[in-house]
Amino acid sequence: MLNILLATYLLIIGPSLNMWRSLYPKKDKPPRAQMLRYWSMSWPVLVMLGVLLIGSWQAGYTVRDIGFDMPLSNAGAWGLGFSALLLGGLFVAGSIIEHRYTAETRAKNERKLLDSPFPWPHTAAETAAFVVSMTLMTAGWEVLYRGFILLFLTSCVGLPIAVTVSAFAYGIGHGYQSAKQLTASIASAFVFTIAYASTNSLWWLIVIHAGLPLSVVPAALRAYRRNKIEILNTAI
């Protein structure tokens, strides 16, 4: 019963609420402290993982059933290798591109990063909290939308439909900012869901999912530091 309720929330209620909130945002909402924002990003996932834990015990699911292949399968090992190469390649490419930027271009990109609504950390304490929150959140969504949903739906409707339903729900759950953003969210959800269906291993997907936003943290901290120095120099 708990698994049915959890699947209903993940596939219908949660995406619908997020879409509604993105289309009809609350006006003049006061900004919250960064730590509170990180907590607000994490606690819903913790609650759903708790429900999944009880539901898995009732249904007899194992950690392997929901994607944590232990010992690591060949597909999982290849996936981890790919994730390391991907993140390493992106880091090298990003470093090369950044060093080729002019000072004006770099300042423009940093301003765009600072002005984004995403709660990038400013301090060491916020960075630690951000890393914990982002790792927990991304791992939790992978477990819920890939490991659990595919396990729950495949026996009922088959793998292709399960992949399609899961990807659409997860993509729509990111809300709507533009047609381009929504299309990209759904497309990336399909990529991750198909990747999991092909390997039955979540480890490498969690590494990629968490690694992409975490890799931006050093750039955000540099941008905040430079911005602070510029403000001090202007005041002097």
TrEMBL record:
It comes from the Bacteria. One of its GO terms (molecular function) is metallopeptidase activity. InterPro entries: Rce1/LyrA-like_dom. One of its GO terms (biological process) is CAAX-box protein maturation. The keyword Secreted does not apply. Residues 129-211 form the CAAX prenyl protease 2/Lysostaphin resistance protein A-like domain. The chain crosses the membrane at residues 6-24, 36-57, 77-97, 147-170, 203-221. Keywords: Hydrolase, Membrane, Metalloprotease, Protease, Transmembrane, Transmembrane helix. It holds the Pfam family Rce1-like. It comes from Duganella violaceipulchra. This is CPBP family intramembrane metalloprotease. The lineage of its organism: Bacteria, Pseudomonadati, Pseudomonadota, Betaproteobacteria, Burkholderiales.
